[in-house]
Amino acid sequence: MRIIDLSSPVNADAYEPDPVTHEILSPRDGALHMSAEMKEHFGMDFDPAVLPEGEFLSLDRMTLTTHTGTHVDAPSHYGSRSTYGTGIPRHIHEMPLDWFHNRGVVLDLTDEGTGVIGTPDLEKAFSRIEYVPSPNEIVLLHTGADRRAGTPEYFTDFVGLDGDAVHMLLDLGVKVIGTDAFSLDAPFGNIIKRYQESGDRSVLWPAHFVGRDREYCQIERLANLGALPEPYGFMVSCFPVKITGAGAGWTRAVAIVED
């Protein structure tokens, strides 16, 4: 069995539209912090100098969004109301875990340019590998966008799905769709330009907005999909971090390949 990492890192040194801050407290800083906390909260005096090397434990403080790095979008990310179920979409902590450990299939879309593709493009990609996903399989889109991760172009140069393409996958019983791009939709600038030219509101984030009518999750900002040895026959594990009330949760997504 091999485990292939499909996740991109959270890196405060990389370019992000919403910058990441990462404050590192060294083990020495941790000792001073612990001593101060014990004094403030419990009235206890503790000299950190008695610790080995005067050190305790390191600590990392970070400021970032739940959409930084590889993450799973919950239905509540797509809007505050849904036309299915109770009318209130579920947050990430409410999603069933069995959605996120299942068989996977990867589609090679690396020849597609920046913009949006639809159902015919996905049908061609499935035809090339002579495979159609079964219900609950996790479909991964290998666009090659992860090659630009950490640069401004990662957020502007990639391909996304239109609404019909998402409906096609959901009609097959797929509940989780992943991409190595910043978004399952086309780039923001591309979407807004097409809307301004056409006046057609259906071009505005259709992949996400499908989630207002049908419950599903996206994995965005995957990486390393080109390392998968075959387009199917592997497992995907992508459990999201359990953040109460959140519209997304980070995940360490991996593929499990049986040799």
From TrEMBL:
Name this polypeptide is given: Cyclase
This chain's source organism reads Streptomyces resistomycificus
Q: What Pfam family is a match, any one?
A: Cyclase
InterPro entries, alphabetized: KFase/CYL, KFase_sf
Q: SUPFAM superfamilies, alphabetically?
A: Putative cyclase (SSF102198)
- GO BP terms in the entry: L-tryptophan catabolic process to kynurenine
Matching entries from Gene3D superfamilies are given as: Putative cyclase (3.50.30.50)
Q: Which GO terms describe its molecular function?
A: arylformamidase activity
Q: Per its UniProt entry, which superkingdom is the organism in?
A: Bacteria
Coiled coil (residue ranges): none
